[in-house]
């Protein structure tokens, strides 16, 4: 999410004060920048670190210490940044206190220093250096680097470990950014060694080179006057666009019909979206939806014909009080191959409707997120009668020049990686000049030992000529092992000279099977590729339906795992290429190795054994046997049990009573049984028979915290309180019944999905598989036929769009805790997202019902000039603060509030 108005508070100057403990330090060392580097960060030249003659650009750069979030700067570090020249750019180094800054003395604890540099304009950034003390109880473990073009949305570029030996004084640690990134803002997060008392920092410096001005990439017509006049820089990309007509984001037919090539300010045959008109005074130059299309979408994809770094995107749409009319916001996604897209976040339209005009709601690219294809999904406000669209202009920079002479020996391939989870790796080398290097295919090597040459190695896969991977210079690998260190390389194959085998590898370590470092590890699904149980087959269209599901799963952008019983290698490959792994039922050790090789490491024996009246002693014996045989194949695999069908004590021998009997079957209160499985698995459906939470109706997800606490209490009573918990099923059905689960309408199913996931996150649940992805049939009164996020025909329901939004809003964040100042029926949770550099606060009214309850307002205190709010209902809104207060409407649909400082709820009316 990128806020419409830049938050000045984040970038304002911080008052600096003298003062840190006096510690004996070694003499200062002189360390010069490399001769071929150009200094960008405004460090003083002419001193010990940067002698006279050091290559430097007078950018006017400045920095601030970040005081918010997961890696908020240690207070003493800020206080010790002197009131003279800022210590991190004064050109001096330790040991003198006037040239350095130090954290407080906190041995045994973590501490951080987080700097944000504003270079004032975008540069090609090639390296970052940090000088840190290596003696007298001081050590910096590592630093991370994030880059941004707008100061709002960042991308983690990488990290550098400090390998300096103790006693080297204030020694520099360098991170060479490969490939280089285009950025204006650089965030550096420095981590103190928790075993050391302090972290003393001397200097930080950023190096790079000048960029040419951004140019238009989207082939807009240049006119004599106006926003895009004839002096506007423009690259002759030959770009074109098309409106999307497939689910999930179907463009209104009238928008397509009114995109009239023959009437466009006299340009002659140019589509309206790029005809160069921003005043849009004539209806012939704009596109309009059907009247009454409240809350609908328009989605367009630009093909830029080659790969670029996106700098800025202009989106001109109409606002008016009559109607009213307003696009309330949009999402931008980028891709190099036209298949795998990465979201750049949401942008709100902060223009007042009273303007009654065509207005611009600009957004910005993200460093390292390159694009040949740019997808823009515009949302008509939920109270807007019509979506009116004018011009879209995409700006950016060339990544390379394909017209240079071709090389006989190709350059090494520099690439970026992103771990989606423990098993799925994305590789992107889209900035590589394959044309000039005369490359027709690439080898991808992933090894568990370092290597400098691929001689004697076999690539994990090859991006063959004209394949999607070769053309897009982007690939997915979905079979990594958890908690394993890998060394990765991409090699070029010259069209006539074979493979260049010498490589510089990138090192990465995968997280654990269940993850937990970020909120997004929780997202999972139940989707039987070919159905089962009450499933109604699609006949000859079954394969078409499967491919529709895979595309919609991929479009969700964050589902990690699917639960299924079969071990089909074909399904592993199909789902894996869509970024979705599997949780399997255990069918003996013969399948484990091949499942591990496909990236699957979680297995279950049973499904709801309590509801099936299975004997707990027999179940315990089976679990022990399966656990022993599973671990004999792979110690990393996890047995996930018992998929309990109820989390209650309403019936003897069911739910938690059955779980007691399972633990007690060893005669030792579970001392043995708890070792027979690795992960507790439950299906905490909020059943119709459960008593309601006070003040709420029956069946709401607000029952979950109480249910999960009862589960945890039961586990603790048997000495198993440290075991992780997952849910392999939970859901609400849009059926017309009501005997087992409360019947809900589609909007309520969406709201409950989001609230259930938020409660699960707050209660430490590691994975939640929504049940299920697709409706099993079309009978309106059949529970199983109405549990899906999409219907039997493959059309997304409101819950699909809610899951889509939920994933994008919080998947990269870390959970902070409950929001203070709210209590039942109001609920709120807070998160911090390092990439968004902001807090995200989820807030809703659980007593609100779709059609009967009034909307309340939460009065929220903030030091920001305003906040952006993303609704699970697809809405976007910028709410300005008045005297430090913003009023956020509350319904049963969670609202996500973006702010640079934490918010407090003062009251709810």
TrEMBL record:
Keywords: Signal. Residues 82-104 are annotated as: Disordered. Residues 1-26 form the signal peptide. PANTHER family: ALPHA-L-IDURONIDASE, BETA-XYLOSIDASE-LIKE PROTEIN-RELATED. Residues 605-744 form the Asl1-like glycosyl hydrolase catalytic domain. This is F5/8 type C domain-containing protein. Gene3D superfamilies: Galactose-binding domain-like, Glycosidases. Residues 88-192 form the F5/8 type C domain. Pfam families: F5_F8_type_C (PF00754), Glyco_hydro_cc (PF11790). The keyword Signal applies. It comes from Paenibacillus whitsoniae.
